[in-house]
Each structure stands twice: as C-alpha cells, then as structure tokens.
Amino acid sequence: MTIEQLIRDNDTKFRGGFDTVFTSVDIEVVLSAVGVPEMNGYAESFVKTIKAECLDHFTAFSHEHLMHLLHEYVEGHYNVDRPHRGIDNRTIGLPEPDEHGADFAQDDVVCDHRLGGVLKSYRWKTAA
C-alpha cells in the first residue's frame, strides 16, 4: 500500500519542513479549507472517538505510556473488538457465533477487558 496524499488542516504546528518531508517522498500534501473540519470528517470523528472513549479516562505519564494506550485502543478495541455498523454490527477479529436464538445462558457470553476494564467488549463463548 502506497500513500499518495496527505490531507491536513492549516494548523500552525505544521509550519516549516513538515510538508517538505512528505513531498520529498512523492506524497502530495492537500490542505483543507480554513475553519472547515468537515472536509476531513473521518479523521475528525476518529479523534473525537479516541478522546472520549480512551484518552479522557487516563493521564499519560510518558510518550511510551501514551503509545501503549493508543495501541491498545486502536489495534485491539477499535479495529477488532467493537461491532462495526458497515458490516452489520459484526466484529472483525472474532468468529461469527453459532445460532443462539432465544435460549442462551449468561455463561454463553464472555466479557473481554482492555486497559484495566475501561474498554469492554462482549462475544459468544467459543466451543471448547
């Protein structure tokens, strides 16, 4: 997978050689309009979600700690454990359950915890 474009806003933290780094490896830098966060709605939505569901619950004491929190959230919960509306509320990383119908016991459901229980997801217990 090659990256052809970087879409970014006009924040002052991107001054200096930021764009030069990307253009030097043939990545086109595309600026969004000033004051229009809707131009990159997917990124804005993701940032809001990760703040509300993960980072608002923790104080990161180091860069490594922050990277651990982000990795657990993104690689574990966001991409794998949570149900995705685009695929009929199924999870990506877990197998589909057998048909349970109306007759299932509470023991048939397993709760997975991440980040000390802040992130929880539920799945059907797999057959042993």
List the uncertain runs. Answer: none
Q: Report the major sheet.
A: 2 strands, parallel
Write the element-wise H/E pattern from the N-terminal end onward.
EHEHHEE
Strand order of the largest sheet: 1-2
The share of residues in extended strands comes to 15-25%
What is the number of helices? 3
Looking at how many chains there are and whether they match, the oligomeric state comes to single chain
- Strand tally is 4
Mean of all residue-level pLDDT scores:
79
How many domains comprise the coordinates? 2
Shape: elongated
Radius of gyration: 20 Å
Q: What helical percentage do the residues reach?
A: 25-40%
Quick synopsis:
With 128 residues, the protein is of the alpha+beta class. It is built from three helices and four strands, in the order E-H-E-H-H-E-E. It folds into two domains: 35 residues, no CATH class; 89 residues, no CATH class.
Can you tell me about this structure?
This protein has 128 residues and is α+β, with helices and mostly antiparallel strands. It has two domains: 1-35, no CATH class; 36-124, no CATH class. Helices cover 30% and strands 16% of the residues. The protein has three helices and four strands. The strands form two sheets. It has a two-stranded parallel ribbon. It has a two-stranded antiparallel ribbon with strand order 3-4. Helix 1 links the parallel strand 1 (5-8) and strand 2. The longest helix has 19 residues, at 63-81. The model has no long low-confidence stretch (mean pLDDT 79).
